[in-house]
Amino acid sequence: MARVVVDVMLKPEILDPQGQAVQRALPRLGFEGISDVRQGKRFELEVAGPLDEAALTRIREMAETFLANTVIEDFTVKVEDVDGAKAES
Amino acid sequence: MSLDTVKHAAETPDAAQPWAELGLKQDEYERIREILDRRPTGAELAMYSVMWSEHCSYKSSKVHLKQFSEKAPKSEAMLVGIGENAGVVDVGQGYAVTFKVESHNHPSYIEPYQGAATGVGGIVRDILAMGARPVAVVDPLRFGAADHPDTKRVLPGVVAGIGGYGNCLGLPNIGGEVVFDPCYQGNPLVNAGCIGVMKHEDIHLAKASGPGNKVILYGARTGGDGIGGVSVLASETFDDSKPAKRPAVQVGDPFQEKLLIECTLEVFREDLVAGIQDLGGAGLSCATSELASAGSGGMRIELDTVPLRDASLSPEEILMSESQERMCAIVEPGKVDRFLEICEKWDVIATVIGEVTEGERLEIFWHGEQIVDVPPRSVAHEGPTYHRPYARPDWQDTLQADDAGRLPRPQTPEELREQVLRLVGSPNQASKAWITDQYDRFVQGNTVLAQPEDAGMVRIDEESNLGVAIATDGNGRYAKLDPYTGAQLALAEAYRNVAATGAKPLAVSDCLNFGSPEDPAVMWQFAEATRGLADACRQLGTPVTGGNVSLYNQTGETAIHPTPVVAVLGVIDDVTRRTPIAFAAEGQLLYLLGDTREEFGGSAWSQVVHDHLGGLPPAVDLDRERLLGEILISASRDGMIDAAHDLSDGGLIQAVVESCLRGGTGARLIVPDGLDAFTLLFSESAGRAVVAVPRSEEVRFNDMCGARGLPATRIGVVDGDAVEVQGEFSIPLTELRSVYEDAIPALLA
């Protein structure tokens, strides 16, 4: 069985208030040396059935229209097999 | 690419420049070259292009907007008029109130949540920049057909965005409207209004004077968001074939804005500010040029000192960026340290980015090299002015001839009953609680009235109970039939709504939403609507204090209905005397104030039952509106009425149903002589209200109306648990409630 990971990040030029809040908190907690933090979302999709090109196309479509808001977010789709080995799709 | 300095521009007069891509017209570009006597640098071109955009320069609308000043009625309440960030009105006891309505239509279509959220953020900063503490917001919204799939995409995002941003700021959302019409498909109208309160002596203006004074930019860092938003987004028609032109939307951070509010109010309190401007559309280009232009003229900015979120931004991008939650203040040198200290306390980044200078030029430097050298007035206040051609469209006569009075009317009591239920359960008439419940209406504990009341009302002084009320209205269907009358009806309705709560209407703000000004028919609608509104404001004695114009609201060739949204602000000396809409006490008498005529053009009935738009909108009688207002205010102050509801779209039956459901009591209505049941229930004649009069006050109330010459007709009594029209039908409240309250959740939830 295959797992597909969709990572969603705000586009680089878009303000990320959550990331900024984390960044501001770091030095207060004694973690120095981080100049910027951006926070995103990770979706792990367990694919039932074969992970063929058609399934990946469906997943990209799913990411484009539902998982990510492409007006302000970018996404990447990665295939991860059960052993944990990663492969770029 | 190397830096395009002023020197470089003078040496390379023939370098090609992307003026067309930035939205400038050929003659506008030529004019910039004329003003500067050379070609503009890249940074100058960026500034002119955003500041000369329709959104910032009002180039198509200002020849018409002049009337709001020229025809303005004399009003002692007016402390600051058109031209500042927002108008300011005296409400007594040393208090002043500032309020304004703006649009965020185009961004909200592209990214509903952030578009609507940053719309709230922007109007709040406008109010803050006047020196006032924001106390409440309102949101007039218009969407496509309620059952259209795209409405289901746009509306929940917009509502969540408004709620999210406003709730985080701790500002109650006390009013507004939600209207559905297919004409707003692909072009929703997301208008946002804000009220702020201050003492008279706290008024601050947007100008930079006093050479040597420092220019301080404070608030969020500048990033690449919304670059060119005003020139590209708000000033052009959407074209599906060119998605690449969509610029990045801005993302707001309400917690940063909250810090900005408290920080700004503290620097005001310590008198550290000589001039102030918020950063909205056109960002730093707008703030620097407007501050300099309104002051003595000279300003020098070191642009490389601006704190950035993204170090790779070019100077042009920094000047055009519309990053949210930023303000720009002019501060005397001796006060700078204290100013920065207060910003530090609030965790707000503040940077001295320049100073006011002796000359009359706005000069901007990038690492020591000059990239801008312009007369600021030419950027901010002397942009192009267009006398766009306008012409009454040829279809206007056909539309007006298509009289709604000829539509088939209900023939039997059963049919009448069925149409009442259809009306009450139609998206425009049904309860909007599903939407307004997502906003915090009561935070801060000063909300006296909020949706679904006629107007929102907040207390502004806890000791004296002084309060202000605000209502926003606009009926695009009326305005389509007759823009002049439609705009007047919008004002009349908002005025009536404020008066119905017992508050005295004082001043007006408007948000004029129209299609493309390049279409002579749209321009005619705009010219007529502004003329109508200015005339009506003069007659009602309520000046326009400021507002906003949003053009290019259209998809392809099809413009939205002309939609002038009018906000009326009123004052009430004692909020405990306010009049709610609820019929709560059985036995009280129902009086219909005003005249009811056979007026169905543009009515809710014609839309819901016949899907028809034609004929003429209801006639306007502004003297009658003023008289009705005076009666409603007196009756409220003297305790002669316990409830009042203005009559507008949906007519009497809609108002009665709303008041009954609000109070949890029924009503028995009798059709008065000279009227038929259908006309009584569905006519939308203006200048009317329904009031509930305690029996002990009936004589006094009647005497007052009689003496002042306002028709007051007894039409029934508050009674039972059904809405009954004698001899026609009876509908139990439970049935009305489920029809009224379930419609919107069924469509959108």
Automatic annotation (TrEMBL), chain B:
<dbReference type="Pfam" id="PF00586">
    <property type="entry name" value="AIRS"/>
</dbReference>
<dbReference type="GO" id="GO:0005737">
    <property type="term" value="C:cytoplasm"/>
</dbReference>
<comment type="pathway">
    <text>Purine metabolism; IMP biosynthesis via de novo pathway; 5-amino-1-(5-phospho-D-ribosyl)imidazole from N(2)-formyl-N(1)-(5-phospho-D-ribosyl)glycinamide: step 1/2.</text>
</comment>
<keyword id="KW-0067">ATP-binding</keyword>
<feature type="binding site">
    <location>
        <position position="58"/>
    </location>
    <ligand>
        <name>ATP</name>
    </ligand>
</feature>
<dbReference type="InterPro" id="IPR041609">
    <property type="entry name" value="PurL_linker"/>
</dbReference>
<dbReference type="InterPro" id="IPR010918">
    <property type="entry name" value="PurM-like_C_dom"/>
</dbReference>
<comment type="function">
    <text>Part of the phosphoribosylformylglycinamidine synthase complex involved in the purines biosynthetic pathway. Catalyzes the ATP-dependent conversion of formylglycinamide ribonucleotide (FGAR) and glutamine to yield formylglycinamidine ribonucleotide (FGAM) and glutamate. The FGAM synthase complex is composed of three subunits. PurQ produces an ammonia molecule by converting glutamine to glutamate. PurL transfers the ammonia molecule to FGAR to form FGAM in an ATP-dependent manner.</text>
</comment>
<feature type="binding site">
    <location>
        <position position="250"/>
    </location>
    <ligand>
        <name>substrate</name>
    </ligand>
</feature>
<dbReference type="GO" id="GO:0006189">
    <property type="term" value="P:'de novo' IMP biosynthetic process"/>
</dbReference>
<feature type="binding site">
    <location>
        <position position="510"/>
    </location>
    <ligand>
        <name>ATP</name>
    </ligand>
</feature>
<feature type="domain" description="PurM-like C-terminal">
    <location>
        <begin position="210"/>
        <end position="366"/>
    </location>
</feature>
<comment type="similarity">
    <text>Belongs to the FGAMS family.</text>
</comment>
<dbReference type="Pfam" id="PF02769">
    <property type="entry name" value="AIRS_C"/>
</dbReference>
<feature type="binding site">
    <location>
        <position position="102"/>
    </location>
    <ligand>
        <name>Mg(2+) 1</name>
    </ligand>
</feature>
<keyword id="KW-0658">Purine biosynthesis</keyword>
<keyword id="KW-0963">Cytoplasm</keyword>
<feature type="domain" description="PurM-like N-terminal">
    <location>
        <begin position="453"/>
        <end position="572"/>
    </location>
</feature>
<dbReference type="GO" id="GO:0000287">
    <property type="term" value="F:magnesium ion binding"/>
</dbReference>
<dbReference type="InterPro" id="IPR036921">
    <property type="entry name" value="PurM-like_N_sf"/>
</dbReference>
<dbReference type="GO" id="GO:0005524">
    <property type="term" value="F:ATP binding"/>
</dbReference>
<feature type="binding site">
    <location>
        <position position="547"/>
    </location>
    <ligand>
        <name>ATP</name>
    </ligand>
</feature>
<feature type="binding site">
    <location>
        <position position="126"/>
    </location>
    <ligand>
        <name>Mg(2+) 2</name>
    </ligand>
</feature>
<dbReference type="InterPro" id="IPR016188">
    <property type="entry name" value="PurM-like_N"/>
</dbReference>
<protein>
    <recommendedName>
        <fullName>Phosphoribosylformylglycinamidine synthase subunit PurL</fullName>
        <ecNumber>6.3.5.3</ecNumber>
    </recommendedName>
</protein>
<keyword id="KW-0436">Ligase</keyword>
<feature type="domain" description="Phosphoribosylformylglycinamidine synthase linker">
    <location>
        <begin position="20"/>
        <end position="59"/>
    </location>
</feature>
<feature type="binding site">
    <location>
        <position position="550"/>
    </location>
    <ligand>
        <name>substrate</name>
    </ligand>
</feature>
<dbReference type="InterPro" id="IPR036676">
    <property type="entry name" value="PurM-like_C_sf"/>
</dbReference>
<feature type="binding site">
    <location>
        <begin position="103"/>
        <end position="106"/>
    </location>
    <ligand>
        <name>substrate</name>
    </ligand>
</feature>
<feature type="domain" description="PurM-like C-terminal">
    <location>
        <begin position="586"/>
        <end position="722"/>
    </location>
</feature>
<feature type="active site">
    <location>
        <position position="55"/>
    </location>
</feature>
<feature type="active site" description="Proton acceptor">
    <location>
        <position position="104"/>
    </location>
</feature>
<dbReference type="InterPro" id="IPR010074">
    <property type="entry name" value="PRibForGlyAmidine_synth_PurL"/>
</dbReference>
<feature type="binding site">
    <location>
        <position position="125"/>
    </location>
    <ligand>
        <name>substrate</name>
    </ligand>
</feature>
<keyword id="KW-0479">Metal-binding</keyword>
<feature type="binding site">
    <location>
        <begin position="322"/>
        <end position="324"/>
    </location>
    <ligand>
        <name>substrate</name>
    </ligand>
</feature>
<feature type="binding site">
    <location>
        <position position="100"/>
    </location>
    <ligand>
        <name>ATP</name>
    </ligand>
</feature>
<comment type="subunit">
    <text>Monomer. Part of the FGAM synthase complex composed of 1 PurL, 1 PurQ and 2 PurS subunits.</text>
</comment>
<feature type="binding site">
    <location>
        <position position="548"/>
    </location>
    <ligand>
        <name>Mg(2+) 1</name>
    </ligand>
</feature>
<keyword id="KW-0547">Nucleotide-binding</keyword>
<keyword id="KW-0460">Magnesium</keyword>
